[in-house]
């Protein structure tokens, strides 16, 4: 079973940057997709970025142009570079992974491998 561990969350001022990391406990298979999701208090979990086995990326409109998802296959690590942060980016951030045939970055399905989450707080 793949275990995912997020890190890099914390506090930032509006306009600032943070970089999240998601380390996988074992080899991320070549046909796996990964993504970042977030959940703000009182809101449903939403997908914000996904990356497929070829490195192709997709983003939610709310983060497009500000966030960048990438992965290092050699080190089994997924990243989310977050720039131009806004207070509305405040949320718990989660990474997830699954075979690409099952993965939709816009759909936080229970069947995915999930990390435990890392908190991001952006103040104005």
H and E string: EEEEEEEEEEE
Q: How many strands, which pairing sense, and closed or not: the largest β-sheet?
A: 7 strands, mixed
Cα-based radius of gyration, to the nearest Å: 13 Å
Q: What would you call the structural class?
A: mainly beta
On the 0 to 100 scale, the average pLDDT is 94
Q: In DSSP terms, counting alpha (H) and pi (I) runs of 4 or more, how many helices?
A: 0
- Estimate what percentage of residues fall within beta strands: over 45%
Summarize the structure.
With 124 residues, the chain is mainly β. It has strands at residues 4-7, 10-13, 18-24, 32-39, 46-51, 57-59, 67-72, 77-82, 91-99, 113-114, 118-123. The N and C termini lie far apart (40 Å).
Description:
Helices cover 0% and strands 49% of the residues. The protein is built from no helices and eleven strands. Strand 5 (46-51) and strand 6 (57-59) form a beta hairpin. The radius of gyration is 13 Å and the shape is globular. The mean pLDDT is 94.
Question: Which tags fit this structure?
Answer:
124 residues; 0% helix; mainly beta; globular; 11 strands
Topology readout:
Blueprint (H helix, E strand, L loop, with lengths): L3 E4 L2 E4 L4 E7 L7 E8 L6 E6 L5 E3 L7 E6 L4 E6 L8 E9 L13 E2 L3 E6 L1
Parallel strand pairs: 2-11
Antiparallel strand pairs: 1-3, 3-8, 4-5, 4-9, 5-6, 7-8, 9-10, 9-11
């Amino acid at each position: 079973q793949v275990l995912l561990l997020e890190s890099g969350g914390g506090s930032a001022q509006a306009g600032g940057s943070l970089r999240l990391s998601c380390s996988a406990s074992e080899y991320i298979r070549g046909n796996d997709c990964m993504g970042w999701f977030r959940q703000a208090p009182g809101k449903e979990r939403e997908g914000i970025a996904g990356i497929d086995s070829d490195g192709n990326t997709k983003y939610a409109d709310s983060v497009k142009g500000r966030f960048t998802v990438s992965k290092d296959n050699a080190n089994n690590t997924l990243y989310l570079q977050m720039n131009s942060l806004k207070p509305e980016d405040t949320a718990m951030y989660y990474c997830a992974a699954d075979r690409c045939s099952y993965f939709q970055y816009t759909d936080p399905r229970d069947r995915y491998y999930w990390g435990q989450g890392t908190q991001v707080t952006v103040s104005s």
